[in-house]
Amino acid sequence: MTTKTVLITGASSGIGHATAQHFHQHGWNVVATMRTPDDSELHQLDNTLVTRLDVTDIDSIDTAVQAALDRFGGIDVLVNNAGYDTFGPLEAVPRDAMVRQIDTNLVGVLDVTRAVLPTMRTRGEGVVINISSVAGQMTFPFNSLYHATKFGLEGATESLAFELGGIGIRVKIIQPGSIATQFWGGSLDFHDDPDLAEYRTMMDAISKAVAHLQENHHAASPPSVVAEVIYRAATDGTDTIRYRAGDNADAFFGLRDGKTDEEYIAATRQQYGISPG
Ligand SMILES: NC(=O)c1ccc[n+]([C@@H]2O[C@H](COP(=O)([O-])OP(=O)(O)OC[C@H]3O[C@@H](n4cnc5c(N)ncnc54)[C@H](OP(=O)(O)O)[C@@H]3O)[C@@H](O)[C@H]2O)c1
Description:
Bound molecules: NADP nicotinamide-adenine-dinucleotide phosphate
CATH class: Alpha Beta
Number of domains: 1
Oligomer: single chain
Strand content: 5-15%
Strand order of the largest sheet: 3-2-1-4-6-7-9
Number of helices: 8
Number of strands: 9
CATH topology: Rossmann fold
Low-confidence stretches: none
Order of helices and strands: EHEEHEEHEHEEHHEHH
CATH architecture: 3-Layer(aba) Sandwich
Distance between the termini: 63 Å
CATH superfamily: NAD(P)-binding Rossmann-like Domain
Largest sheet: 7 strands, parallel
Helix content: 40-55%
């Protein structure tokens, strides 16, 4: 059997890094892509190409995909993992930060997918795995931009299931709950504006909830748990599209399931201590 190849974006840390290690342990060729590859310890792994790919830089995408094809001859599985969270009132987020969020989490995923599809299409097989979130199917306060990207990603992925399923390529959505990575630390793009007084009470309540999440990160599941689910999605040979990952993913969806939109918004306001205006 020929050795299979996975290309992963955002492999410098967290879920992407754990996924690179996991596929390597299972004997795969790994293309671990990241914005700053020089210091990565993944260089020490055999059958692993560590190379630069910024999902907002189309030239870097094309160069990395070509390097993967030159080294390993094909790409069997693409893991679109790179992403981060722009958090805060929509009005407080500068426009360039808003655009960067959508460029990274949504346009970047579509650009990398478009770059990898030709090799999968001509071989008539492949799996595209998009890392969404529980936030791809349910919402939380003051997170409109992140939800725009993850809901958008899930819609795009579901639609791609039709056109790509027809030519032998499977698409998958991974929905992690809370995972102990840089996500709520260095990767969080937090915005607030003290001049926007009308949001003050709500933002104070939300900021407390975010601080609690950052302090209690040890309660989150390790990224290796998500890596295992990604590997299962890559190899199970099924047409299953959505996979939840992490200890509390089901609990999050449990807050939403069975409620109308209005009931969910009322219950979530209460949970975060936000009263209606
Ligand atoms: N952790 C959670 O609780 C959680 C829950 C649900 C979903 N997720 C999703 O899981 C994915 C991975 O996040 P994580 O938790 O592993 O956080 P992380 O440790 O912060 O990793 C995020 C990765 O994305 C990379 N990245 C950011 N912008 C990029 C760009 N323009 N081009 C290429 N790479 C870029 C980062 O690279 P740099 O090192 O260069 O910054 C980093 O490698 C994200 O899509 C996130 O939305 C996370």
